[in-house]
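Revision sheet: structure tokens.
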Amino acid sequence: MNTALKLLLALLLMVPAALAAQEDDPLLEARRKQLEAMKVAFFTRKLSLDANEAKRFWPVYDEYVRLQESNRMKMRQLQGRMRNEGSVANDRELEGMVNEYIRLRTEEANLMARYHPQFMEVLPVRKVMALYRAEEEWKMKLVEELRARRVEQQGGAGPSRLPYRQ
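Predicted:
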């Protein structure tokens, strides 16, 4: 697995949990809101959403993201169990963990399949295609920002790259 993919997976699996676990921290909550606002602006620009499209799209997309994040939280919890208990679990317990892993991965794909027709109802097909592309671009931007932040924390030079610049 290449480094960029590993970073992306780490980001997708850790950031929402860290943000959820520390919602009481005003600084983290402010950063989360800022990141959400940047995501909305990024997607609105990439999809060229007009006011009517945005009004119809965002409620559907927000629900989709909420369900994705819930599924990812379950996946993170399961991966933690697999890491912590995998070497001491019996075969039956391991089988249960592996089956749950497959169920959660399948649910991830099912969510996309379930929401695709809803996206097609609220957006023209070109904008749905742009949505899927924008999701990947957003993830890559986050990975780039994470990588840049890590370099800075390890003594690299240069200005802070967060918040994300569009």
